[in-house]
Amino acid sequence: TKPEKAVRLATFARLIEPSELTENTIFEKAETLAANLDEGKNIDDLAKELGYEVKLALNLKELDENVPGLGNQRQIVTWAFNNDREVGDSKRFDVEVGGKRSYAVVALSEKTEKGGLVLSSAVIEEVLLKLTKEKKAAIIKQKMNGNTLDEIAKNSNTNVRMASSVTLASPLISGVGNEPMVVGAMSTLAIDKISDKIEGEKGVFVVKVIRREAPTKLENYNTFSKREANKLKAKTYQIFRVLKETADVVDNRSKFF
């Protein structure tokens, strides 16, 4: 037979760990940074000078366990919410990130009142989207004038559309999407009466109900009753959440955990 070439392969693996000198150097750098902060120096200026990266942990709550960028660091949250803590306080923490022992130098940059919120980019974007939606709705409403649907559609540069098989259980409007506010208004609107302007998820609507079908009578409602009972059970969490929000309870768990 024709000889075939073969390769003998040996794999050599070695765990690379920092030396004692490297660990001591990193510790000294963390301690030096913490000491400079204690002297009142600015963390951003120090980071720029030393080539470090400053990460913000916005809107931390008293019972949070995770710190953005560091993972589960309950000790840092507990420190930040200590009653004696003041803006500008700082501390070095021994942390473990990705299974590796590290150091984090933390500085308390701001406090917010209970229920307050620091405007992060995500919050700003959410507010801008809401304000933009409200502004667009106001502009559209100004154009929606007329005594009939055809007149309103003409003034709004759109067309009158028909929607069938619309139910409260599934508030979908064909060609539009999910519109619970609009469908809810339809359910109470008198037949052949033009509604007021309704702000929905995808736009501003004016509707007229031309036919409403009564639900079919059943000989036995056991299946329906069981389904509704299961829906109520599923809302238990929502009920407890409302009770929690309305009850005058002081949450002191953060002092013990």
Automatic annotation (TrEMBL):
List the keywords (alphabetical). Answer: Isomerase
Q: Does the keyword Isomerase apply?
A: yes
E.C. number? 5.2.1.8
Q: List the molecular function annotations (GO) for this entry.
A: peptidyl-prolyl cis-trans isomerase activity
Q: What is this protein called?
A: Peptidyl-prolyl cis-trans isomerase
Q: Which species is listed as the source?
A: hydrothermal vent metagenome
- What does the organism's lineage look like at the top? unclassified sequences, metagenomes, ecological metagenomes
